[in-house]
Write a structure and sequence with these properties.
- The structure is a single chain.
- The chain is an alpha+beta fold and 155 residues long.
- It is built from five helices and six strands.
- The chain starts with a helix and ends in a 5-residue tail after the last strand.
């Protein structure tokens, strides 16, 4: 929409409501995580380097407050599976949540080449059972997993 009238028309056409968000200039990033039966298996933060799609991304550990919030969420909802939270970080360092996908992101394959294999961690966590998988080892891998990946397409 480019005019207020178009916004009003779009809002009135929504039968079950809609979500309106201001444009926030900044860096696009995602946090991917895996959990099994309410226990966080691992998480990693990725900053997109090439436009809005994750063709190239820089991986870095999640801040302790992010890990704590994810642990609380997973436990509260007994979450199982992979997921991604997408954010915009503005010039003041504030994060604006723009999307939540209850699945692994498309860039997760590239993340494995950068050293963090969250799908593999989740699978081992599920197959070995809670208490049998060395979760601390996976968390330390995610905490040290700093790398870059680039997706390429061959035709």
């Amino acid at each position: 929409c480019t005019t207020w009238q178009q916004v009003c028309t779009a809002l009135h056409s929504c039968e079950k409501g809609c979500y309106v968000q201001v444009i926030v200039p900044g860096f696009q990033m995602g946090i991917s995580f895996a959990a099994y039966q309410g226990e966080l298996t691992g998480c990693i933060q990725m900053r997109k380097c090439e436009g809005s799609k994750a063709w190239t991304g820089d991986l870095q550990p999640c801040a302790p407050r992010v890990v704590s919030a994810l642990e609380t969420f997973c436990k509260l909802y007994n979450y199982t599976g992979g997921s991604e939270l997408e954010f915009i970080e503005d010039i003041y360092g504030r994060w604006w949540c723009i999307d939540w996908n209850p699945r692994f992101p498309s860039w997760i394959y590239g993340g494995t080449f950068a050293g963090v294999n969250l799908p593999g961690m989740l699978l081992q966590h599920a197959l070995c059972g809670i208490g049998k998988v060395p979760i601390d080892r996976y968390r330390s891998l995610c905490a040290s997993g700093v790398g870059r990946f680039t997706r390429t397409v061959g035709q």
